[in-house]
């Protein structure tokens, strides 16, 4: 008969099993199927004959090991899925390079010789629309009144000049729009069209980021419209 030192109680065996199963967190050190069966067989041989383990305890240990193996397999599958999604997102995002995308909020690069393209969304149309441009200090530099417009999305181009026709320097500007509808003034949503220069994967947010020609970076989720 085995000595008293070789007899494993249920608690001792489960502790030994857990330590072997999760040692250091490395796959090479974790308890594999063969090692588990060896420990399981050793427990059967060395259990206390005066207090043998019940069948339910053996079944519970087998179920525990199966659960751990299942979780490991699921984790591996999820990591593979995330990797495939990342590759697919980068491949899809590369098609946006060179295209112009609409950035909500009305902030974007303007001034210089290149016009700033904007999109204004009018849900109910407008009896009169006023476009305003503010510089980085919040000063009004340009304003223009537009006539009656139908409901829908309308595109406007700001030349980069102030109200006196002077060319403004390249900088960040804000374009706003106010619409008069049935005698009441409403704020109309404005988006700036900017060119995508490159795309990259953001591991922190698990999303695709777009680098714009003006130097800003936005996530793909922020994009409302893609234009040629």
Features:
alpha+beta, 12 strands, disordered N terminus, Immunoglobulin-like, 7-stranded antiparallel beta sheet
Task: Describe the model.
By secondary structure, the chain is of the alpha+beta class. The protein folds into 2 domains: 4-93, no CATH class; 97-227, Sandwich (Immunoglobulin-like), CATH 2.60.40. Helices cover 29% and strands 35% of the residues. Strands 1, 3, 6, 9, 10, 11 and 12 form a 7-stranded antiparallel sheet that branches. Residues 1-8 and 20-26 have low confidence and may be disordered.
Topology:
Blueprint: H1 10-22, H2 33-46, H3 55-93, E1 100-104, E2 107-110, E3 116-122, E4 128-134, E5 140-146, E6 152-158, E7 171-181, E8 184-188, E9 190-202, E10 207-212, E11 217-219, E12 223-227
Antiparallel strand pairs: 1-9, 1-12, 2-7, 3-6, 3-9, 4-5, 4-7, 7-8, 9-10, 10-11
Count of strand segments:
12
- N-C termini distance: 84 Å
CATH architecture of the largest domain: Sandwich
SS-based class: alpha+beta
Q: Fraction of residues in helices?
A: 25-40%
Radius of gyration: 33 Å
Largest sheet: 7 strands, antiparallel
State the name of the first-level CATH class of the largest domain.
Answer: Mainly Beta
Number of domains: 2
Q: Please, what is the average pLDDT?
A: 77
Q: How do the SSEs run, as a string of H and E?
A: HHHEEEEEEEEEEEE
Q: What is the CATH topology of the largest domain?
A: Immunoglobulin-like
What percentage of amino acids are in beta strands?
Answer: 35-45%
């Amino acid at each position: 008969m085995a000595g008293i030192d070789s007899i494993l109680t249920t608690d001792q065996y489960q502790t030994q099993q857990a330590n072997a199963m999760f040692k250091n967190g490395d796959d090479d050190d974790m308890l594999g199927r063969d090692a588990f069966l060896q420990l399981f067989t050793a427990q059967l041989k060395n259990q206390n004959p005066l207090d043998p383990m019940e069948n339910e305890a053996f079944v519970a240990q087998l179920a525990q090991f199966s659960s751990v193996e299942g979780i490991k397999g699921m984790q591996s599958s999820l990591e593979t899925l995330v990797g495939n999604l990342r590759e697919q997102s980068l491949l899809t995002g590369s098609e946006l390079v060179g295209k112009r995308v609409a950035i909500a909020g009305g902030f974007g690069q303007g001034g210089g010789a290149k016009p700033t393209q904007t999109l204004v969304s009018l849900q109910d149309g407008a009896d009169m629309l006023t476009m305003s441009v503010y510089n980085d200090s919040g000063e009004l530099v340009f304003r223009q009144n537009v006539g009656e417009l139908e409901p829908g999305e309308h595109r406007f181009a700001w030349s980069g000049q102030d109200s006196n026709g002077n060319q403004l320097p390249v900088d960040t500007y804000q374009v706003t729009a106010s619409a008069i509808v049935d005698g009441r003034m409403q704020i109309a949503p404005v988006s700036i069209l900017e060119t995508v220069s490159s795309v990259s994967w953001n591991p922190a947010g698990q999303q695709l980021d777009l680098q714009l020609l003006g130097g800003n970076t936005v996530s793909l989720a922020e994009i409302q419209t893609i234009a040629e």
